[in-house]
Each structure stands twice: as C-alpha cells, then as structure tokens.
Amino acid sequence: MLGRTLNLGILAHVDAGKTTLTERLLYSAGVIDAIGSVDAGTTQTDSLALERQRGITIKSAVVSFAIDDVTVNLIDTPGHPDFIAEVERVFSVLDGAVLVISAVEGVQPQTRILMRALQRLRIPTLMFVNKVDRRGADCHRVLTEIADKLTPAVVGMGSVRGEGTRNAAYTVHALGDDAYAARLFELLADRDETLLTAYVDGASISAGQLQATLAAQTKRAMVHPVFFGSAITGAGLDALTGGIAQLLPASAGDADGPVSAGVFKVDRGTAGERVAYVRVFTGTIRVRDRLRFSREGLDVDEEAKVTAISRFDAGPAIQGNAVTAGEIARLWGLSQIQIGDTIGEPGSRAAVANSFAPPTLESVVAPCRDGETGRLYAALAQLAEQDPLINVRRDDRRQEISVSLYGEVQKEVIGATLADDYGIEVEFRETTPIYIERPLRSGEAIELLHAEANPFLATVGLRVDPAPDGAGIEFRLQVDHRSVPTYAYKRRENFAEAMGQYVRHTLREGLFGWQVTDCIVTMIESNYSSPDGPPSTRGPLSTPADFRKLTPLVLMEALERAGTVVCEPTVRVSLEVPAQTVGAVMAALARAGAAVETPVMQGELSTIEATLSAVRADELQRQLPALTGGEGVLESAFDGYLPVTGTTPTRPRSDHNPLDRAEYLLRLAGRVSE
Ligand SMILES: Nc1nc2c(ncn2[C@@H]2O[C@H](COP(=O)(O)OP(=O)(O)OP(=O)(O)O)[C@@H](O)[C@H]2O)c(=O)[nH]1
Ligand SMILES: [Mg+2]
Predict the structure, then answer these.
(1) Residues 283-308 pLDDT 10s
(2) pLDDT digits (tens, 9 = 90+) for 168-203
(3) Which residue out of 14, 15, 410 has the highest number of ligand 1 atoms within 8 Å of its CB and is therefore the one to mutate?
(4) Are 93 and 264 in contact (CB under 8 A)?
(5) In angstroms, how far apart are the furthest CA atoms of the chain?
(6) Is residue 626 pLDDT above 50, yes or no?
(7) Which bound ligand lies closest to the C-alpha atom of 14?
(8) What is the dihedral of CA 207, 208, 213, 214, to 10 degrees?
(9) From start to end of 232-347, where are the E strands?
(10) pLDDT digit string (tens) for 487-510?
C-alpha cells in the first residue's frame, strides 16, 4: 500500500520561529543529529548565504520527514512581507498548515494577512504558539488575541507551566478534563448537527467521539486547534507532532489518474540548469515522460521531456524514477517551465493566485560600472524565473531597466544577490509607485463580422463596467449560445475561459499604461462564420485567433469610452518608536501626507498608526534610523488603491506611449504591415 503524504506549510509573521521549529521537527524525526540555529546560520532550510548572513528566510524551502506512516513534506516559508510572493506560490500545493505565533509578540499584522488567506482557501490549519520560554510570554493573552483577531473557531489543546522561563513546560489537556471537554463540545457542536442533537436528546458523548469530531472538523478547516511550546527548548513539540499527524489531512492520492501537477518553485541546479519543484495532484510522472504544461493568462502550451526526478521522502531529496499523486518532487529537463505553470490537466486547486497584494513599487536599477547593462538585464531575467513578480522591464527609449518590488528589504536582497552571485554591483535609482487604472463609468464597443473595417472573421461586442474596489477583473459571457463558435472551442465554458484570458491579457495595459482592474467585462455580442453555422453569410471558418486578435481592439475602444482613473497604492503602517522621537516622526509623517492616528504610549515606546502612499512609506522606512536613533521599527501592510489627486492625476507609465500602443494594436490586428 502507498503511504500517506502531507504537504505542510509553516507560516508566520517574520521572526516567529518557523525555521527554528522546522529544525526541531527534523531533529525529533531523526533526520538530523544536531539542531541548527538561525542565529549561527546552520539550519537546513535557511541554506542561502544571504539567509544565513541576515538570519531571515528569503526563499521557501522543502524538507521531508516521517511521523509514523505519514511522510511530511514541510515547506518553510519567509515571514517578511517583502517576500509574500514566495508564500503565495506555496499555497497551491498545501494539504495543511501550521501558523506560528510568538507567545511574546502575539498576533502580528502578517499573522492576520496569512490567516485570512488560509481561511479563504480553506486550508486546514493548526496554530502553534511558540517561544513560551521567552521572557514576556503570555499564553492566555495570546489565545484570547487569536480568538479576537484571527478566528473564534479555536481551542487551546493544553496549558503551559512556568511560561517565560527556560523550564516552561506544556501539558496536554486530558479529555477527562471537564472544562476542556465543555469548551471543545461547545466549539464542535456549533458546527455539527449530530453532536448537538445527541446532546439535546440527553445521550452521553464519549471522549473518543469528541476527538474524532475535532479531527474531522480540523481536516475541513472549520476549527483550529492551538498548541503551545518552544522550538528552542522542545517543550510541546511531541503534542504538535501528534496533532500534525492526526488532525491534518494526509492522503494517498490517485496515482493512476491523468497527470495534474503544479509548479511552486523554480531553482537552478549545479550546472545552471532549471529545476522545477512540483506538487503532483493526480497521476504519476516518470523519467522520460513528455509533459505538457500551460500558463494562466498566456497562450503558452509547451511540451518537454523529464530527464531526472528527485523526490522528497523522509530525509534529503533522493533520485527517483517516478513521482506520484500527493507527492512533491524536483524535475529536471523542463527548460522553459515557470512558477505557477500547470502540468497536464488543470489541478483542482490550480488557481490560487492573487491571494495577496501585488508589488506596489518599481525601481530603476543601474549597474555601477559602465557597459554592464546587458549582463545586468540577463541576470535579472534569470532571477525573474524564480520570482516572476519582480517583472523586469527594459525601457529602450530611456535606456533603463526597472524591477517591481515589495519594499526596502527585497531591494537590498536583489542588490546583494546580483553582487554575490553575478558579480554585478548595482544602484537603485528612484523608487516609484506601480499605479493601477480603474474604469470611471461604463463603456461599450463592437466590431461586426464581415464589416469592411474588421479584418477578422468574428463579431466581438464588449462592455466594461466599474466594479467595487479590490474586486479584480471579472469576465461574463452574455450571448446567445448559437453565437458561440463551439466547433472551435468544444464547449461554451472553454470559449468563456479563453475570452476571459484575452480580456485579462489586454487589461494589463490601460489607457495610461497601467494594469486595469476592478471591473466587469461582459461579452454582449458574438458571431462567427462557418460553412454550416447560423450566420447568414457563409465564408471561411472563424478560428480562435480571430477572437483573440479582435478582443484587444474592441476592449480598448470600450475602455476609451469608459475612461479610467489612475490610482496609487497605499499602505497602513504601524511605527514603534522611542517616546522622545514621536515629535520628529509625526513631522515626517505629516510631510509624507499621511493620515495619522493619535500615538499610543507604552512606557518608553510609542506606537503610531497611519495610512499613506506606498512610495512615501518606503521613503519613511529609509529615514527612520536617522529619525529614531536606530530604534524605530516600521511595519506596513498594503491597504488598497486611492485615486491620484493633485496637479497630475493621470500619470502615464514612463515607457507608455499611446501612439505605440495604438500601433501595436493595429499591427496585432494586421491592419498595418510589420
Ligand atoms: N526563546 C526562543 N527563541 C526562539 C524560539 N524560536 C525561535 N527563536 C528565535 O527567534 C529568532 C527568529 O527565529 P526564526 O526561526 O529565524 O524565525 P522565522 O519565523 O523563521 O523568521 P523568518 O523566516 O525570517 O520570517 C531567532 O533568533 C531564534 O533563535 C523559541 O521557541 N524560543
Ligand atoms: Mg525562517
């Protein structure tokens, strides 16, 4: 019989102890003989030189160990918000997660952001309150905070004695403990009719029944057991390990079905070759298999041969011949593969993209030495394979290269990577916001089949309507079924899917060159030409290319009529600064145009909350050490987009040229020759 596999994510706010916990779990499972330390740079998962120097995780890393008959593939993720994209990619491959929360700091901004995403994706999640040995640990307060700020569907699984000391010890609540049993019953019965009915009927409910219901509800992400302990001393670790094996859904998967797998990480091997980390949802991938893969939103549909496989199996990755459903493996040979690609059939959870905000800043990056621009571009392009969101762009007119960024720390990491791995010293010039465009009102446009000005064999009519902030792009197909070219797309749903892709692709550049979002695009007219189809005029067959090429023309015209407003990214910041520097920090916030709340004093420190533009927050981050004698800490979280106001409300992207765009669209449409 095949063993069961659990793909487990370890997630938390920065510094909560994910990497240390990972190390402890590997040690308990007998995979390593000595526990490495983040501070000494000796852990398994912080293996990059830069991670070891800085003591923070930058890239997600997979390690594997066994708990009884369950193989756990653990993915240690970075907690710093600048690397949130790493976490997002991992979400698509998880069976379950452990959300780590510090017993001292409690629920932090990133904890909330992560928990919201875990809930939205219904990923079964245990919580681990770590660092109970550290001074200031307060498990009771943290449990209350979890219930208040994250979710009320939680239950503490044990208690801690001697918290805040090296000897802090964790005791599991016994099922015979009446207070615990009552709390557990209350939580579970709320979500389980049979349990409630049995209770109302006066039937006695056994401890075993409660335990089984707890496992069932946890596996369905309805409730979240909370464990306590210390990754440093090992307190509470056995209970957590037991919880991982018993309360999270390990599975065997369908090894015989059609191949469906997702790529969540791309790396380079020792010879510089591309290595893809995949999670197999169904089927089996073997060495020498030819695999088809596709990419959301783009017309890529490639095929390549697997030349080698290395599986994660209770210990370091080992060379293998095959990888089956449920497992994670590294694949060689797929030289064009990218993060987020789907191998074979679309997975059941293929599309989890956009769980978090996209990067909000972009910065011009230039080599310090002359004549290295070409090498720099090549190096950045290689980094972009591993992190597509850095979205390297070359502006030929201004002779500049720019990258998208989440913030200062990511910028420093990119700079250091270019220097260490590629020998290219760079400087980042001005950092500017990545704006978006939202439609102002509704707009429609149509091109008719066989009309003189329409070079394509298709009718496409589209309407753009504004949608609520944060809604993204929604595509609706609102046409008679007879007007859908089903012979070319097989099913109506496929046509809707393809049209949605053409629409999304077009909206990457709006009237001012920015991504258009928060809108509904409805296809209101469609028609095609086919020898035996409904159109009156018979002619050559319409093809998908006709619809693909006509869509951008019609959509841009509809958008032109709707008009767009350029909006800038804003962040909510929380500053912790020495009390005597509050005045200087408040003045800096005022200069940055921030909306500031009244500072809260806590002894020597003051906390200031404010909302301001992302680019100004980035500037503030850099000024902070000088303003606060190196003592200030700034945490920021994306807070949506607001229309740009002031003298230049329509800021076109630096390399956006409406004439170029028009010409491009025309060329796409074949109206002017190449
Ligand atoms: N006292 C105490 N310190 C801990 C514990 N767990 C982690 N630490 C310390 O907390 C710091 C951060 O630990 P990491 O394991 O790097 O935290 P992380 O969550 O992986 O951090 P990022 O990956 O950078 O987000 C290190 O100095 C650890 O030694 C714990 O249980 N008790
Ligand atoms: Mg870490």
Answers:
(1) 999 999 998 887 765 555 678 899 99
(2) 999 999 888 889 999 999 999 999 888 888 888 877
(3) 15
(4) yes
(5) 85
(6) yes
(7) 1
(8) 70
(9) 260-268, 274-282, 284-286, 290-294, 301-305, 308-311, 318-320, 322-324, 328-332, 342-344
(10) 888 888 889 999 999 999 999 999
